[in-house]
Amino acid sequence: MTVAPSIAAVTARIIERSKPSRETYLERLSHAASQGPHRSTLSCGNLAHGFAACGPTDKANLSADVVPNLGIITAYNDMLSAHQPFETYPELIRKAAREAGGVAQVAGGVPAMCDGVTQGQPGMELSLFSRDVIAMAAAVGLSHNMFDAAVYLGVCDKIVPGLLIAALTFGHLPTVFIPAGPMTTGLSNDEKTRIRQLYAEGKIGRAELLDSESKSYHGPGTCTFYGTANSNQMLMEIMGLHTPGASFINPGTPLRDALTTEAAKRALAITALGNEFTPIGEMIDERSIVNGVVGLHATGGSTNHTMHLVAMARAAGIVLTWQDISELSDAVPLLARVYPNGPADVNHFHAAGGLNFLIAELLSQGMLHEDVRTVWGKGLTAYAVEAKLGENGTVKRVPVSRESGDPKVVTTADKPFQPNGGVKMLTGNMGKAVIKISAVKPERFVVEAPARVFSDQNEMQAAFKAGSLTGDFVAVVRFQGPKANGMPELHKLTPSLGVLQDRGQAIALVTDGRMSGASGKVPAAIHVTPEAKDGGPIAKIRDGDMIRLDAVAGTLEVLVPAHEFDAREPATADLSRNEWGIGRELFARLRDNAGPADEGASVLY
């Protein structure tokens, strides 16, 4: 299959730009892989410690060093609905490994926090940096050098990006990601949004709101809206790191267990001890990264991945930029409507054909690189399938239907919901920013209005409750970047902004913070770089300055004469309240050393 010229051009540019760092990365990977299964390099004392707790059969197998050992990195905890199903996975994986003639051990656990729990709370200021902590924690688990391959159990926002950074750092090891699946459908997203806005307006109380939220988030599995967690699952599959069709099968079902068993056996089949050696660092290349970006645009995925994809790519020596992401957005149509881009949830999306239908459609239009390596073998066509439960309890796959099960949820390239992707880059005299437009009505793509400036989201919430946010305005919420306070999501502002927009006001949000995968119907220029803490232009904005956000032209401008704007001193803010409490004091060095958002907001690269 021939890839479209526009996709090929961006890919070629990434390959050329990445040559020096990619070559160095692959040289290091080759050296590590050439050492063979690493238990042979351990002393008898090392090895005895490594299998001391194993049963006699596993101990004998590891002593002989002739069977593959599978390392399990798990993000299990039972507070997070998305990760609670992982409690039973290790035993299932160990059993599958023995059936395949191998051994499996839990190599380590990594922290997993929920942005839904910490939304608007001090703990959210740890969220972004938890990605890099997760990568380091996974590295500790794998540092024992006992493993021939690894499987990663993770789903949510920063967990999967952190795990993938770790996996690529150990790029000589074959790797399979194993998902847990979304919870079953609860209260409809439209109803949930309606209740939230009623609460924001003071028309209902906390009891009614909590009842609504509890009916929305009601059981084990991923939240069913298409935010960062479900965007993660899309990425892992379209980049070939899941087994085909695995992403959106509900937890606690026979098919889910069959897919987990299959994934463990597949990880053992692709080690250096077999004939299909597939180290992740070679498997994931520039084409795989481009496929991930294309999937993000076609599904209207999370804006968080404008940072995570950049950071994940760098872990493999690949230099991806916001400009690449923006140009791919212009080339890829939006083919899915999943909340917040439409009323459907991910279960409806999957039932309508879902990701595997979209892979088939995108391949047919030359919008994906088909000739990539995956954990399943060569070629992405193997992912244009539907996974089903076979009669013997194993997974069987059938070609995906070429007809959408619901054209209002999933469509074809000749009838797109919009001609370009859901995420774009904005540039101008305020710096660079990202905007998600897949849920924004076209008549709101351009907003020109006076600024209302706030130094945190609580200030803006107070102004909303006081009734002072009248008329058209652009809310500028600054000192929310990585170095200021860890770049928390500002999704708490969504109901208030939605209320004002529904009243007929022309409004937009401009911030150096995040709005998450749940960015919705209000135009929001987020991840503004340079951030205010670094003295970026956003720190020079004053109340009343006219700001023009133009998602059509891709610009973000403050309409102040250049000589006047340049002469202004950047504002400062007292950030001492963000430096301690709920563990924030432990993250001071990470805040101080965080990179800019357009380079992944990482402390690692």
TrEMBL record:
Residues 408-601 form the Dihydroxy-acid/6-phosphogluconate dehydratase C-terminal domain. One of its GO terms (biological process) is D-gluconate metabolic process. Pathway: Carbohydrate metabolism; Entner-Doudoroff pathway. InterPro entries: 6-phosphgluc_deHydtase (IPR004786), Dihydro-acid_dehy_C (IPR042096), DiOHA_6PGluconate_deHydtase_CS (IPR020558), ILV_EDD_C (IPR056740), ILV_EDD_N (IPR000581), IlvD/EDD_N (IPR037237). Its EC number is 4.2.1.12. Binds 1 [4Fe-4S] cluster. This is Phosphogluconate dehydratase. It comes from Hoeflea phototrophica (strain DSM 17068 / NCIMB 14078 / DFL-43). The gene is edd.
